[in-house]
Write a structure and sequence with these properties.
Helix content is about 5%, strand content about 40%. The chain has about 525 residues and is mostly beta strands.
């Protein structure tokens, strides 16, 4: 691809200037830290374990103190050396189901609002350990107890000789009082463990925020996505979080027994998508019959839990092309063993309209935005599983911890040919200057974190964000002249009701600035805008 050098003429553009200013008013210039809660640093032993549950799946386990290994290299401290003997691959009990073992450490009663992160260090003794099927050493989960609440549901333990640092954010769980820190080691799916794994565990800590407000977060600005449904993977630690919406009605099957046509089309138009630095992130559409659901249609793991699922996934490749994957399963609840997998590449990338068309129940065409397509068939017996009542789901999923916080925006979803029809661009019935919301006659939320799914307005201008924690800041301010002073009320307050105040994965605060919000704040369209935070 030929690159072009672009030149900017600073005096030729009269619109809003993408300049950010981070301002804070603080009481003191001294940094004072509140006390971290040291759950266990294993300085002289492995005391402090409240209980442990190695279940019946693991053969055996052993724990000893090792004074020769400390994650911070402290010669006066050590770590816990944990041995878990997982079933051998040829053992009849070995499986790829979710199997975890857990250790609980007493913390005393604590309020999660007083802490930022749950952190610890793990090192795998790779010389004396056996990797999982995918080459990793399984995964980690972090939980607080009484009541039982997951902070991190899945964090991969990679194949490395060094210490690995893990953390989860308390901002992602309900605030309240807890009394235990629980560490879980997971064997599941491709990360199913076999034989012996030896782990060093060290420095289980809850980190505290500054005891006085000395934080001066730096603001970042980016263009807002195009209008449509925006789904942010905003749940802290949610590797496989589904940030989706679901149809309210269930008459969207392609099965000709109920469809009004022998040809039914499902389409998903992508307007914004992460780039190639975020492999594994998927935009997705599910078609799921109610007959195969294990419970309610509102289930944030609906595709895993249900026995019969047809799914369309779209992801970006390293060369900026995109690949769509159509797959389905039948009679396979709480798993994802596919009956068929078909892919279609799009050289133009992930943006645009992706379509799956079913003709006469079994003939299927998968079409990319560049109009390339592939045809295939599914057995009639399998197609019969997907009769009405059938729900449609739309959204995205990170699939890798590094993708948490990323988002996709969908500009249109259509279903045509089934008994029920959908043609929704998500903003057609909205009112400029008012919040745009889902059409509740068509959709409902089906998310791991409802705050991360919202409608981006047609006049959305900027995403302004900054790192957490941001205690003491309550809303964004704006001015059209940097000479203006906050003390003279020359900076206008942008209401949270208009911009939002979204916690993205416990790491970032996000606000969305619409043109109509700026117009209302300034009483006229400002020629330029600067944004800031002021400590309350």
């Amino acid at each position: 691809m030929k690159s072009q050098n672009m030149k900017r003429k600073t005096n030729a553009y009269r619109g809003l200037l993408p300049l950010t200013v981070s301002l804070t008013l603080i009481c003191s210039g001294l940094v004072a830290m509140a006390d971290n809660l040291i759950v266990n640093s294993f300085d002289a032993g492995i005391s402090g374990i409240d209980w442990q549950n190695f279940r019946s799946y693991a053969y055996s386990y052993a724990e000893v103190w090792d004074p020769t290994q400390d994650s911070q290299g402290n010669p006066n401290s050590g770590s816990m050396y944990l041995t878990v003997n997982w079933p051998l691959h040829n053992d009849p009990t070995w499986n790829q189901n979710w199997n975890d073992v857990q250790l609980a450490f007493y913390t005393g009663s604590f309020d999660s609002a007083n802490y930022i992160t749950f952190e610890l260090d793990i090192k795998v003794d790779v010389t004396n350990s056996f990797p999982a099927l995918d080459g990793t050493y399984g995964a980690l989960e972090l939980i607080v107890n009484n009541p039982w609440t997951t902070v991190v549901g899945w964090a991969t333990i990679t194949a490395t000789n060094g210490w690995q640092h893990f953390k989860g954010y308390f901002s992602g769980i309900p605030g309240g009082t807890y009394s235990e820190a629980v560490i879980g080691l997971i064997s599941n799916g491709g990360s199913s463990l076999t034989n012996t794994v030896n782990y060093w565990i060290d420095n289980i800590v809850f980190t505290a925020p500054p005891s006085v407000h000395t934080n001066r977060p730096n603001l970042s600005i980016a263009p807002a996505p195009p209008a449509g449904l925006t789904c942010i993977a905003s749940q802290p630690g949610g590797t496989y979080q589904r940030q989706m919406i679901a149809t309210v009605n269930s008459d969207y099957s392609w099965n000709t027994a109920t469809a009004v046509s022998n040809s039914t089309t499902y389409s998903l138009s992508i307007a914004r998508f992460p780039g190639p630095n975020y492999p594994g992130f998927t935009g997705q559409m599910f078609m799921i019959p109610q007959a195969g659901m294990i419970g309610s249609p509102i289930d944030d793991s609906i595709d895993w839990d249900s026995s019969d699922v047809a799914a369309l996934y779209v992801g970006v490749n390293q060369d900026r092309t995109a690949t769509a994957t159509f797959q389905y399963k039948t009679n396979n609840p709480s798993s994802w063993i596919t009956a068929l997998v078909v892919t279609q590449q799009c050289l133009a990338g992930p943006l645009g309209k992706w379509t799956v068309t079913f003709k006469n129940d079994t003939n299927v065409t998968l079409t990319a935005p560049d109009r390339t397509s592939t045809n295939f068939t599914i057995p009639a017996a399998d197609a019969a599983f997907f009769a009405d009542p059938l729900y449609v789901y739309v959204g995205d999923q990170p699939n890798i911890n590094g993708n948490i916080g990323q988002s996709a925006t969908f500009s249109r979803v259509t279903v045509a040919g089934s008994a029920g029809a959908i043609d929704d661009n998500f903003v057609a019935n909205g009112t400029p200057g008012q919040p745009y919301v889902l059409n509740t006659n068509i959709w409902t939320l089906n998310t791991a974190d409802p705050n991360g799914v919202f409608i981006t307005a047609p006049d959305a201008k900027y995403w302004i964000s900054w790192p957490l924690p941001d205690a003491g800041f309550t809303n964004l301010y704006a001015t059209d002249d940097l000479k203006n002073k906050i003390s003279g009320l020359q900076w206008v307050s942008l209401p949270v009701s208009a911009t939002g105040w979204l916690d993205v994965a416990g790491v970032t605060r996000l606000t969305v600035v619409n043109q109509s919000t700026l117009n209302a704040a300034f009483s006229n369209p400002p020629g330029r805008s600067f944004f800031g935070l002021f400590h309350q």
